[in-house]
Amino acid sequence: MLRVEHLTDREVRSPSLLPGWTVGHVLTHLARNADAHARRLSGALNGQDVPKYASGEDQRRREIEDGATRSADEILADLRTSVSRLEEVFALSTAAGWPNGHFRGGGHYGASGCPAHRLREVEMHHVDLGLGYNPSDWPEEYVVWDLPVLLSTVPERIGSAANRRSLMAWLAGRGPLDVETTSATW
């Protein structure tokens, strides 16, 4: 929170590094993401397989759009409250031994994966804020966990056969990576 603690209204309305999103969008997304993880984990603690968002992607988008237009003070207070609530649920889950960690809530990972996925959201979007935090600042333990995960998604995100071949040659040390090689965003 230190990097964003003193943002002004003008700064939260400024563009982030994510196309179409302001800094306020990113911060609101981080707050809603904390709520979503807290919701899933609270459900798991109570024996319920709860999704991150009851109304799915529409709810997620609407909450981010609605929240991004608030003042800096409102956005930051919301983020502090959401993060605090999630930390409480993490503590309760730890004390309870992470029950029902296999519950997926309709998603692609179990509830026990929420802390790692939250770490990804925070680290990636910290960069996306465009406030001076860069990939070179990512903690090594985060890189050690997430690099193999992201690498496993590359085949499905590379569209053309030429891109797949270029990347494969580069990974095998058989040539440079073609500057035209692209992948879909994650």
Keywords:
2 domains; 186 residues; mainly alpha; 0% strand; Four Helix Bundle (Hemerythrin (Met), subunit A)
Report on the structure:
It is a single chain. This protein is mainly α. It has two domains: 9-138, Up-down Bundle (Four Helix Bundle (Hemerythrin (Met), subunit A)); 143-186, no CATH class. It is built from seven helices and no strands. It has helices at 9-12, 23-45, 56-68, 72-95, 114-128, 140-157, 161-171. α2 packs antiparallel against α5. It is globular.
Strand content: under 5%
Tally of distinct domains: 2
Number of helices: 7
Pattern of helices and strands: HHHHHHH
CATH homologous superfamily descriptor of the largest domain: dinb family like domain
Sum up the overall morphology in one term.
globular
